[in-house]
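Morning run. Coffee first, then this:
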Amino acid sequence: MPAPHAPSSPPPPGTGLAPDVLQRAADDLRADLGAADFTVDGVERRLGPVAAAALHREQAVPARRVLRGAGPRTVGSDERGRDAASGTDDAVATLTSLFLLGDDVPRRALDAALARTGADGAVRLGLVEAAGGASDDAVRALVDLRPYASSDAAGPVSWWLSSDLGELATDRRLAADHVLGAGGASLTLAQVTTRTPVGRVLDLGTGCGIQALHAARHARHVVATDISARALGFTAFNAALDLTPGEPGTGAGTIHLRSGSMLEPVVGETFDLVVSNPPFVITPRATAGGAGVTEYEYRDGGRAGDDVVRDLVTGVGAVLAPGGVAQLLGNWEHRRGEPWTERVGAWLDAAGLDGWVIQREVLDPAEYAETWIRDGGTTSDREPRAWSSAYDAWLDDFASRDVEAVGFGIVTLRRPVAGVPTLRRLEEHTGSVHQPLGSHLAASLAAHDWLEAHDDAALASERLTVAQDVTEERFHTPGAADPSVVLLRQGGGLGRAVHASTGLAALVGASDGELSVGQLVGAIAALFEVPAADLAAELLPGVRGLVRDGFLRPGG
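And here it is:
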């Protein structure tokens, strides 16, 4: 029998509580979770490296084996043969078993783990359901509540995030209205977002609220929107749990929730920063014959192909203030006979904004189908017919548009203050990057503006310095006196490696802020015995590229 969808989802935690009551309960819960050491590091210490790594891969057996050794079990295995949490006073073990593994725990163990909240308080918040009032009665999680640690351009954070229980805990396919926690895409967006202090931020498609939480650290006013009422409920609870009321820049009152699709809830408003992890997954649409696959609110935009990303790219400028930046993730189709740079480049042209697109990954149609069918909780062994049907639907959909591959990447857009776009950059970078990337992207945008204000004569008069993370590599043919290849390598940011001519490498090596670019070019020209004007024409474009990408910095 195919595994069913999850039954009707319970309401988000805190639903129905007055704001002041919710905040007091969230304050108690935050204190409890901290006292219990229910943190990313605390869980990893409790499980050990092997079990913790397995849990990150959604494999629960090693974690259950570790926790089973914490003491005698007092709640039996459930109908799926799982080992329930042991009845001990080990708070980390109790909370890990309950909220991360989805196992029952005894009421007395939860009372001990959450000293101020207790099992009854967790029930009132909607975090758990209890079988009875006796100390050994079972308590079961209604939501996923897990520690979250990250670092963005504003510094490190340590929070707790609630969302719907995942497949590991429920052992079934996700519900269509599932609210996802902080997945890989969310973490990527949080780390690539610029964190310059701003007035107003829009988090479009907030989900569990992770981007809004990060934005509240550097914005005075955050608007979080979503088409899902459940998502907005989780965001409200997470804001109450993680943001300290009354503390400037981190108060939960800085986040304002709006219900609606895409840009509809903020028509007529403008923002200094828009962040969005939109429902970008390219999902087969239902046909007249009924073909198609289940659509999930958190990932599927309800539009054909990559239209949801195209429409956001071309439309977001309407809510950007002059100089405002939009950063979003997206998928785009690689169609036969049409380079992806032309396809996405046409979106940038239509947007009328500065645009920078970095393609980070490319999947063929079969890989893409497998990724997202599995993401929804359908597996070939548990639901072979559903798996095959969805696989066929995905491949048919891609074939109908001659899709050869699908790209995934980061889109950065900006409304030019002067009204005329000057930045149009589309590139592929599939290698590792140094996170958080937000400060690097912000610096690159600033460098672009600096270069726009400096013609070659002005650039030649500037003194530049080499960034501290830049190294040089030289490769020699055996027996040759001069290198055949010189690489300038960036240790941070996008980790770029630039092939440099001997002249450009010499200029970079001498860029310590003492001499201007023009003086360095003249000295190198004299050394090479070539006309300075000819060498300048050769080197200045390369210097511009190195400034733009952070190898060289103005203001020496």
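The chain has a mean pLDDT of 90. Good start to the day.
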